[in-house]
Sequence to fold (367 residues):
Amino acid sequence: MSALDHSYAVVLAGGGGTRLWPKSRNKNPKQFLKLVADKTMIQEASNRITKIIPWNRVIVVTNKLYEQEVKEQLPDVPALNIIAEPKRRDTALAMLVGSLYAKSLDPDAVIVNVASDHTLTNEKEYVRVMKAAIKTAAENEHLVTVGIIPTTPSTGFGYIKIGEHIQKLNQGLSLFKVDSFTEKPNKATAGAFISTGKYFWNANMYVWSAKSICAAFEKHMPKMYTLTRELSQKSAQKFHKALPEIYKQAENISIDYAISEKADNLVLIPGDFGWNDVGNWRVVYDLGTKDLSGNVVISESEKALALSIEAHNNLMHTNGRLIAIIGVDDLVIIDTDEILMIAPKNRSQEVRKLVDRLEQEGREEYL
Fold:
């Protein structure tokens, strides 16, 4: 049997997506929305990975609030493969629990961690790179990350610096040792990084064998490892029943801080397939289909109702009502049942400030 026969996908779908408020909210975060395609983001991500891994080996880790939504949007995923987290505990525990579930099904499992809210434009290249990552993880004790070749000096992503070149892989891909991580540098630093050719965007795309990731947690996160290690020996039903007690005690920490920045067996394969994490409304505009005036109109329904006169380069997200604009440029206009938000497009990253204000004022009904 090949490595692909032991491959499993862990789709991470528990986040809240507050940077795309007010459309993305606690009750319906961005992974369940149609923002850049005819399908929702989680459907796009899951369909993409099933070009490599069959539906019966797709595992979804989500918040218990979204369990039913996942079942409705991904009917081909077996119900027992949907892991409902009792509490949000960041990516370290989510990825470990998903990997342990795969290990309970197959001790030789190789796990591909898939974000449910990212997009890409070159699916064929993505498949090629992920197959190479699966083969590398299966044949070695490496923890593999796919680093995105940066196209701009973005300050919104973390950066991974590569060290020595380890080997050439099939079809011209290369494998590098990871040297270091840098969290969201300023623009000048990001530009300097890119100019060296040794830095890649950190997209949290990890591929590893169940054995390797368990060894990494045992070494670097021993408390979390001890808390979870028996999960892989349980039946699927008992696996799910054991989670509430584990989540009560587990640390809230990202995979980068827990494992990646500490591991000495982390390697990187460069990826160039038009990746984007759709982190704010400006990105949604950039990815959208524009009319002759540069306006983008999107809607969850079949009809996108908008009327514009002498207005340019705006993003309008309609909600069944007509949005009509005259003589305005470069705006983001998001209409929902309860909220209308309008902001300059170049300040769309500041949406988080509105969410913070609502949290401070205790206006939970709008979050």
